[in-house]
């Protein structure tokens, strides 16, 4: 006698297993960070565990006969799986990034800071800041690592006068809009507060005479001196570039202000 298999439960197990696999893979490969803030990793892991438990508790029902089978209720869950496999990942391109207003791109630290005040509100005296960064004002170049870009960005924008005259070296993407002068560009990183929908370029206005060899989104390394200047009616830190060079892309594509 042929052994009975409940097709509905079999499809349910298959769909739940695939979904849990994709969640675990997305976290392990860090590809989930292309869509949401890394703090959502724990949510994805918990969701994957719940799906696996559902699969385990559904296995005994595979041989349980059911008069009415609702396969379509589970097949519809295959749609997001198919989309993940077929639709290429792309959040922004050169045209979209270049259309961002330059003043918004460079002053967005104030908005991001407001989003993080509840969890990261720290008051420090200038003497304390020297202890945090002993290189300030001692003639040594502050070499900002890829991982420290976000925190360094907030520190400089939060107390730009303190960093006046500080030599700095950092890496980011070349960004330039049509309304910049011939000597202006921005070195920026794409910042994510919550998810891919709120991505925005955050960086520093730079001044340099020759950057014709560089294109939008190209990764560059900048070495220069920070000066506080008024730009379009707003004071901001501006890097007077002494050295500009091509660079390898950062390991993490985006930066996060509330990890």
TrEMBL record:
Residues 11-95, 125-256 form the DUF1980 domain. Residues 101-131 are annotated as: Disordered. The keyword Electron transport does not apply. Residues 101-113 have a biased composition (Low complexity). Residues 117-131 have a biased composition (Basic and acidic residues). Keywords: Membrane, Transmembrane, Transmembrane helix. It comes from the Bacteria. The keyword Ligase does not apply. The chain crosses the membrane at residues 10-28, 40-62, 74-92. InterPro entries: DUF1980, DUF1980_C, DUF1980_N, UPF0703_membrane_permease. This is TIGR03943 family protein. It comes from Inconstantimicrobium porci.
């Amino acid at each position: 006698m042929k052994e009975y298999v409940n097709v509905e439960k079999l499809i349910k197990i298959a769909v739940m297993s695939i979904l849990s696999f994709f969640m675990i893979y997305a976290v392990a490969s860090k590809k989930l960070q292309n869509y949401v803030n890394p703090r959502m990793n724990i949510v994805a892991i918990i969701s994957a565990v719940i799906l696996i438990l559902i699969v385990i508790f559904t296995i005994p029902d595979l041989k349980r006969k059911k008069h009415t089978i609702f396969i379509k209720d589970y097949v519809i869950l295959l749609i997001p799986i198919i989309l993940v496999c077929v639709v290429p990942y792309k959040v922004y391109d050169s045209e979209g990034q270049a259309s961002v207003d330059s003043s918004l791109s460079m002053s967005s630290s104030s908005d991001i800071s407001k989003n993080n005040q509840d969890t990261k509100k720290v008051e420090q005296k200038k003497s304390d800041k020297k202890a945090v960064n002993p290189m300030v004002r001692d003639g040594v170049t502050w070499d900002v690592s890829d991982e420290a870009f976000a925190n360094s960005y907030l520190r400089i924008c939060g107390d730009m006068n303190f960093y006046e005259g500080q030599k700095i070296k950092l890496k980011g993407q070349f960004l330039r809009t049509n309304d910049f002068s011939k000597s202006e560009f921005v070195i920026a990183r794409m910042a994510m507060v919550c998810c891919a929908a709120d991505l925005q370029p955050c960086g520093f206005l730079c001044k340099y005479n020759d950057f014709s060899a560089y294109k939008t989104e190209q990764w560059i390394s900048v070495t220069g001196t920070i000066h506080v200047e008024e730009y379009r009616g707003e004071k901001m830190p501006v890097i007077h570039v002494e050295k500009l060079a091509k660079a390898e892309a950062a390991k993490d594509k985006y930066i996060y202000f509330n990890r």
